[in-house]
Amino acid sequence: MEKSKESSIYRESYMEKELLAPYTHILKVAGKRLRNKIPIAFNTWFKLPQEKIDKIMEAVDLIYNGTLLIDDIQDNTLVRRGIPSAHCVYGIPFTVNTSLQVLTIMVQKLLVLHPMAPKLVSENFLEIVRGQGIELYWREHFLCPTEEKYDEMNKQKTGHMFLISVRLMQLLSDSKNDYTDLVLTIGLYFQLRDDYCNLIQQEALEEWPSEEGKKNATNLDIYCEDLTEGKFTLPIIHAAQTSDGDAILNILRQRTRDVALKKFCVAELQRLGSLKYTRDRLVILDKHIRDEINRLGGNTELTAAMDELLTW
Length: 312
Description:
Number of helices: 16
Distance between the termini: 34 Å
Largest sheet: 2 strands, antiparallel
Mean pLDDT: 90
Order of helices and strands: HHHHHEEHHHHHHHHHHH
Helix content: 55-70%
Number of strands: 2
Radius of gyration: 20 Å
């Protein structure tokens, strides 16, 4: 890693390297970074210099990867990008402390970027945390949400993560266009795609190791991890409304690591039409997003990023 006078994350200080070890651990294996390509594509409209885009994405990466440390603890995720999750290697207390340190460093970077940047990010980050809290509440109390409530939660949790980048770009640009609805809809699409791929095509997931990252990954694998987390996703929510939905909910309640049981659950989701329903919703959302991009004047980079997400 290059050292930067501007960034305290690389500042030489007592035990700095050791204190950030859980964070640097999850950076050892690169993901596909599909998540970054979407907001970067919005710069076709904002026309910011590359230097500013790099600083924005650096701050957003700190938010995303810093919160992943906590997410993996909350979800009892044992594997991240093909290697053991940070808390499995460094322990929960130390990993939580590192997450707090990284998020504080992010705030310092935002203050350098623009005086209003911390306020803008805190407003959107609060929505992300609220969305995550709602999802955890459903899981811990085993409350199956309606599809409408699930969509709202995903726009909070995933949509606002995208919105942070876009609004930071807009803060530094002269553009006055409001892209909020488009960004939140892309966030919803991104999460529903993740729901589907987690069950059907794991190698298409955002957090699956990239081709470059695979050289550092191990053979560790988690099959249908959302089922082990006990997570209510769109296929589960759809199946729960069918006459045979009780079996699906009983499997989800167990948070099983039994591969045979999870394969049975996926087969049932297929039989009940829940996977097809999710796929149909993805088709509808993809078309809506592309229509909105065209309505806003067109954006070849954003369309290309959407094309790259069509691996489901």
